[in-house]
Every structure is written in structure tokens, then in C-alpha cells.
Design brief:
The complex is a heterodimer of chains A (about 325) and B (about 180). Chain A has about 325 residues and is of the alpha/beta class. Helix content of chain A is about 40%, strand content about 20%. The chains are: A alpha/beta (about 325), B alpha/beta (about 180).
């Protein structure tokens, strides 16, 4: 295999979740293309494919998306220095679509193959936006299926120190939004209402806040809103109620993150994942971090949700370290095995 | 059973059986779940229904615990669709809340959501019902009991022979509560 390129051109593929994503990265931070299928949902060349959380949809989307990404980046397959793919966590059938394409390309181009943990990649959206992370770092990853606190002491050296024991925070927000008639995902609608309405006087529970650990629980909060709504019926104004509810979610996330920061004394705290796009959450985190004297980083909204650029960014660090995988690389459905 | 999801399937030898028990608290729900997990047959398919807050999370955590899974690892699969808890036996925990049309199920590989080597627990199973015709399933329905914030009813319906041990365990739980 060729010696390592100093400014490598990398391709990353992510099919772990709902969206099919492809990115092309120069070096560790220069995003040449970052495409997700959902950006193209009405596009003819994808045969009118609507993003579905399914392996066959990924299969239909991956080739045209790859071609688009190469065109956008203005590069050919032959110029790639490595091929990266997310292999964990997600539906195995969906992961295998991306993995099979990545393996085929790596084999045909005789380039290194790099398997990436999608969750480990989320904080790297901050590297793209702000530059290298100082270590140790503490990451709050609030993505659709996961709410996690990650302690990272160096590249590839990380551990999960807190997580939701039932619903993810984003899921709780989406489900409460749905109770009030908002379409899934309702997070952005709740964020808007919370920004423009003072919270109702009712104080919703802050689950596990008094538990000394770093785990989260959001299932009971969702139920509390359900009961509150049922007991108050028609005369309920949704803005103040959702604002009060969102305050509870944000407070739990902040208190646990700050508690973890006191324990691990990180040089930076990052927030990533779909919920990190919330303006109200960002403002609250900024205030709390400033008060605690912590350096806070979060990515621009388009890099908060699932994307392959963050996968490529982590892969570029793996490439620089010479840590590659071989063609026996396999997918894993579970984050924690 | 009332308005839970239903499949047209053979209950198998011995016909179908239904049990309903009242659970006075989350602790009772947890005990019932533990008993169900310990008596669930290999590769059982269990369908759960009941509105938000009716105790499905509590029950399923306990069923998994009864199957030998650490309950804190049992989290919502609403976004992931399927959580696989390594066993033995491995347990598939499925949530089809986000699948709106049954056709979308055809886009998934069956092995992605039906466990080939252990039990499969499915929340919000409506979209999967057409694909489960002819399967011998256990249907579990959770509901609030009256206006008491803590009380729930649990109804279970399935093949009398296949789920005989489970129905016996539920009977014992019912008796223990009274």
C-alpha cells in the first residue's frame, strides 16, 4: 500500500440510520461534499425515493449519492486516499449496504478501509467547525436514539460515562410534540415555541436529577406531560406548557453535563446530535458553561444531525494514525456490546 | 381482547387463552414482567400495545430482566427501530412507532426485526401485523385502571399450550397481589 498522504482525500459513507449520507473530505477539516438523501427527496435522479429507514432505500440511494458527491467535490474515485464507513450502531441490513460499497471501493482502488463508530463520530462535527479538540473532552451526544455523556482522553480513547436508561431526550421532545399535534420530528417546533413563550408556572419533574450518577431518564417526564395535558384538557395553551416542559429537558441535560465536568475536569465540553441544533438549549448551555468557567463547543445546525462529514473527520484522524481495517470488517447493531 | 392489535394467526395446539390482571403499582408491573420473562418460550413473538404512560417501558424492562438482560441497558428503540440485547439468549426489542405504513416493513430485512435466536418484543406493532399472519404471538395490552395514576391492567392473549408456563406465572402473580 502507498505511503500515507499528508493531505489525504477521504470518502465516508453512513447508512447506519434513516438517512443515506456520503461525504468527501480533504485533510482533516476541508469538507468538499457532504450529502444526505433527505436533501434530495424530490429529486428525479433518485427515482422519487422518500427517505425511509430501510436497507433497500439505502441501496437505491447510495450509487447516485456517491456520483453526486464526487461531482460536487470535483474529484474522481482514483484520487481517494481512503474509504471510511460507519459500522456501528444501527440496523444491520442498513449498515451492510454502506459497508459493502465501502469494502468494494477499498478493494478495487487498493486503498485503506476505515470502519467508524457513528456515535464516536458525532463530536467530530466540532472539529470540522472549530478545529482540533483539546483533551480531555466531555461530549454530550443528544442524537435521535441516544442521549450519552462521553469522556474522551484522546483520539480513539473514549468511554460512555452517562446515558439515558429509557427514552433519549430528543425522542421525549418529539413524542411530547406529537401529543400536541406536531408532526415528527417535533423538536424544532418545540424549540420555536419555547423561544417565544415564557414557561407556564407548572414545574414538570426533572427525572434522576437528584440521583448522584450521570445517567438520564426521560420516559417519566413524557408521561408527566401526558397526564398534565389530560387533566387540563381544552383550556391548555401549548406554548407555555411546551416551554416549561423543554426547560425540564434542558435543565436535566445541563445539570448532568456539569456534574460530569466537575468529575472529569475536561478542557472542553461539546454538545452534538440533533437536539444540539436547538437555539434555546444552546443559549442555556452557554450561560451555564460561562458560569462554570467551561469552554463550550457546538457545531453549526447542519452538522448536528446525522451526516457523513463528521464520519470522514474521525476517519481522517484514523488515517493519520495509520489505524485501518481489513476486508473482514463487520457491522454491529449495538453501541454497547 | 378489546382494541389491541390483532393478527389472524393460529394459536396452535390447545387453542388460545387470555388472562387479565390488575397491577396496583409499578412494583407490581415489574414483578409481572419478571415472571413473564422467566417463562417466555424460546423465540416467542410478543406484541405490546397501550398508550404512552401505560407502563410498557416498565413491563418490558422487567421482562428483559427476567430473560437475564441488565434492565438499565433496555432503552427505547423508537429511533433505532430495533435494540438487540446480547444474551444468551439475545433479545430483540422493536418499536414501530415511526413506521406509518405496513409497506415500509417490506423494505426491512426480516432478520433485522425478528430474532432468529431468541424472543422478539415489539412495541407499536400495527405496521407489522400483515407480516405476522400465521405466527403464534403473545399479545400484551397495558392500560390505565380507572383514575388511579399508579394502577394498570395487563391483558395477555396467546396460544394456551405455547405460553402455558407464562399464563401460570401470571396467575400466581394475580393471586399474590390479592
Amino acid at each position: 500500500m502507498a505511503p500515507l498522504a499528508s493531505d489525504p482525500l477521504g470518502l465516508a459513507i453512513d447508512t447506519t440510520f434513516d438517512d443515506t449520507s456520503v461525504a468527501i473530505l480533504r485533510g482533516k477539516r476541508e469538507v468538499l461534499a457532504n450529502l444526505t438523501l433527505s436533501q434530495f427527496k424530490d429529486h428525479e435522479e433518485f427515482g422519487g425515493v422518500v427517505p425511509e429507514r430501510a436497507s433497500r432505500k439505502h441501496l437505491e440511494a447510495i450509487q447516485p449519492l456517491l456520483a453526486q458527491a464526487l461531482t460536487r467535490a470535483g474529484v474522481g474515485f482514483g484520487e481517494l486516499d481512503y474509504v471510511a464507513v460507519s459500522t456501528v450502531p444501527g440496523l444491520l441490513g442498513s449498515i451492510l449496504v454502506g459497508l459493502t460499497v465501502a469494502k468494494s471501493l477499498a478493494y478495487l482502488l487498493a486503498r485503506p478501509l476505515i470502519g467508524i463508530n457513528h456515535i464516536e463520530a458525532h463530536p467530530y462535527a466540532n472539529v470540522l467547525a472549530h478545529g482540533e479538540l483539546p483533551f480531555p473532552a466531555l461530549h454530550l451526544v443528544a442524537a435521535g436514539g441516544h442521549t450519552l455523556l462521553i469522556h474522551q482522553t484522546g483520539h480513539f480513547q473514549w468511554s460512555i460515562v452517562g446515558r439515558s436508561v429509557d427514552d433519549a431526550a430528543g425522542e421525549c421532545v418529539d413524542k411530547v410534540a406529537k401529543m400536541f399535534g406536531h408532526a415528527m420530528p417535533g423538536g424544532p417546533a418545540v424549540d420555536r415555541l419555547a423561544l417565544t413563550h415564557a414557561p407556564a408556572a407548572h414545574r414538570f419533574p426533572r427525572p434522576m436529577l437528584n440521583d448522584p450518577g450521570l445517567d438520564f431518564s426521560f420516559s417519566g417526564l413524557k408521561t408527566a406531560v401526558l397526564y398534565y395535558r389530560r387533566d387540563h384538557g381544552g383550556d391548555l395553551e401549548e406554548g407555555p406548557v411546551l416551554s416549561a416542559f423543554f426547560d425540564a429537558v434542558i435543565e436535566v441535560l445541563i445539570v448532568k453535563t456539569l456534574r460530569a465536568a466537575r468529575r472529569f475536569r475536561p478542557k472542553a465540553v461539546t454538545v452534538s446530535g440533533g437536539l444540539a441544533a436547538s437555539q434555546k438549549l444552546r443559549a442555556a448551555f452557554e450561560a451555564a458553561a460561562a458560569e462554570a468557567g467551561l469552554r463550550l463547543l457546538y457545531p453549526p445546525p447542519e452538522l448536528c444531525t446525522d451526516n457523513a462529514a463528521m464520519v470522514a473527520c474521525l476517519a481522517a484522524h484514523r488515517y493519520a494514525a495509520g489505524r485501518f481495517d481489513d476486508l473482514t470488517l463487520d457491522g454491529r447493531p449495538n453501541l454497547l456490546d | 381482547m378489546s382494541d389491541g392489535p390483532s393478527v389472524t394467526g393460529g394459536p396452535g395446539v390447545g387453542g388460545s387463552r387470555c388472562a387479565a390482571i390488575e397491577l396496583e403499582s409499578p412494583t407490581a408491573t415489574r414483578r409481572a414482567g419478571l415472571a413473564m420473562g422467566r417463562t417466555l418460550p424460546d423465540r416467542a413473538l410478543v406484541l405490546f400495545s397501550g398508550e404512552m404512560g401505560s407502563g410498557k417501558t416498565t413491563l418490558i424492562k422487567a421482562i428483559c430482566e427476567g430473560l437475564g438482560i441488565a434492565p438499565e441497558t433496555v432503552i427505547s428503540p423508537t429511533y433505532t427501530l430495533v435494540n438487540i440485547y446480547p444474551g444468551p439468549p439475545p433479545v430483540y426489542h422493536v418499536d414501530l412507532f415511526r413506521i406509518e405504513k405496513p409497506e415500509a416493513m417490506l423494505e426491512l430485512d426480516r432478520d433485522d426485526w425478528i430474532n432468529p435466536g431468541g424472543p422478539t418484543l415489539i412495541e407499536w406493532p400495527e405496521a407489522a401485523l400483515p407480516l405476522l399472519e400465521g405466527e403464534s404471538v403473545l399479545q400484551v395490552r397495558m392500560a390505565h385502571a380507572g383514575n388511579d395514576a399508579l394502577r394498570r391492567t395487563l391483558e395477555a392473549e396467546g396460544g394456551a399450550a405455547l405460553f402455558a408456563a407464562l399464563f401460570q406465572a401470571l396467575e400466581r402473580e394475580d393471586a399474590a397481589q390479592e
